[in-house]
TrEMBL record:
The keyword DNA-binding applies. The keyword DNA-binding applies. Coiled coil: none annotated. The lineage of its organism: Bacteria, Pseudomonadati, Pseudomonadota, Gammaproteobacteria, Vibrionales. Belongs to the 'phage' integrase family. This is Integrase. It comes from Veronia nyctiphanis.
Length: 382
């Protein structure tokens, strides 16, 4: 005779059920494999299964880490295999945090590399640092590329190259051992559209129709100075002195310093930098910042600094309201004003590498590339 069907079958390790005959309810318990003790999880089976699976994963990882610590203390093994990748990555995170403290790396770079380091820990953390090969890393990069995340794959590769460079310096691997450098650099095709000079009047008109004032001010400041959004948001009225606007570029951690003459005028506008600064000052709101809050709906925020993300959102609204369209899959962001400024100033003979604060001409050329958004006019010889 066949066994009667069971309605409470459980196939999750360490999860047990108990029937209370008095109430007819089924209670679930989790058994900790380390101590043998049981812990009640209530009567909700779905919740109990979810908790048990998570606990199994966490305890398993804890045991792996414990065993790996013991193995890392095995001197003969470490000499042959090297310390575990996780152990080295934990040291690497301390190294880059110290570099941040010494102003050698920006907070953004450090946070990004920590995220990338944690991915390496999750994927290859138990592998000896000397046992990681190019194929293992290339497989991970290919997975990201297959999911359409080529930019992420490229960033991971850059961070992991640095991880092994630091391991070389620390003597944890041989001087010529860096499997990340042998992988192919993922090709990234930039899909974001470029702003065209013919787009400028429509953007300005759309900005003037917005309820807030700072989007228009940001457009004029951006096209005149070519500054990044974070630097624009940091501009203060006290930065204006001796007929110049003095700026310390945040991406260069303040090491690159530019002084823009107040007479500077973008060929796209009829306003000098001095005129634009005066326009920012004429809001009637007391503020330290050129770009500041002026909204009536939140009086307590008036005069506060505009955050970069807020600037991007405001640009998106005025861009979408402008009626403009682009052939590219992704429309231009506020950062494209920087590229447009470079192309306009370059046509008028300006040294745009200096204007944008770039250390290399190669970086400036990236901004000069119109990505097919504009025609090149052929002129006959004179």
């Amino acid at each position: 005779m066949a066994a009667r069907p069971r309605s409470h079958n459980i196939d999750v390790p360490n999860l047990y059920q108990k029937l209370d005959k008095r109430s007819g309810k089924v209670y679930y318990q989790y058994r900790d494999s380390r101590t043998g003790r049981f812990h009640g999880l209530g009567t909700d089976k779905k919740r109990a299964v979810s908790i048990a699976k998570e606990l199994n994963e966490r305890i398993a990882q804890q045991l792996i880490d414990h065993y790996q610590t013991i193995l890392d203390q095995n001197v003969p093994k470490v000499k042959t295999k090297g310390i575990s990748t996780k152990t080295w990555c934990q040291r690497y995170i301390k190294i880059i945090k110290e570099k941040e403290t010494n102003n050698e790396l920006s907070p953004f770079t450090v946070n990004q590399r920590i995220r990338h380091t944690n991915i390496l820990i999750r994927r290859l953390g138990t592998t000896g640092i000397r046992d990681i090969d190019t194929k293992s890393l290339a497989t991970i990069f290919d997975e990201y590329c297959a999911r359409g995340k080529r930019s992420m794959a490229r960033s991971l590769r850059s961070s992991w190259v640095d991880i092994f460079k630091e391991a070389q310096h620390a003597g944890e691997v041989d001087g010529n051992f860096n499997p990340a450098t042998s992988t192919k650099v993922p090709h990234v095709k930039i899909l974001r559209g470029r702003l065209r000079r013919t787009d400028w009047p429509a953007l300005v008109l759309s900005a003037k129709q917005q309820s807030l004032l700072y989007p228009l001010h940001a457009l004029y400041l951006g096209i005149t100075t070519g500054l990044r959004r974070s630097d624009l948001c940091n501009l203060k009225f006290t930065d204006v002195k001796d007929d110049h606007l003095f700026v310390k570029l945040s991406k260069a951690r303040g090491q690159t310093k530019l002084a823009f003459p107040l007479t500077l005028t973008s060929p796209l506008t009829d306003m000098t930098l001095a005129d634009i600064i005066e326009m920012c000052r004429s809001t009637g709101i007391k503020s330290d910042y050129l770009l500041h809050q002026t909204g009536k709906n939140a009086p307590e925020r008036r005069g506060k600094r505009i955050l970069p993300n807020g600037l991007s959102m405001a640009f998106k609204e005025l861009r979408d309201a402008s009626g403009l369209s682009w052939d590219s899959p992704s429309p231009p962001s506020f950062h494209e004003i920087r590229s447009l400024a470079e192309r306009i100033y370059s046509e008028h003979g300006y040294d745009t590498q200096t204007l944008l604060g770039h250390k290399t001409r190669k970086m400036t050329d990236r901004y000069h590339d119109a990505r097919g958004s504009e025609y090149t006019f052929i002129t006959p010889p004179k």
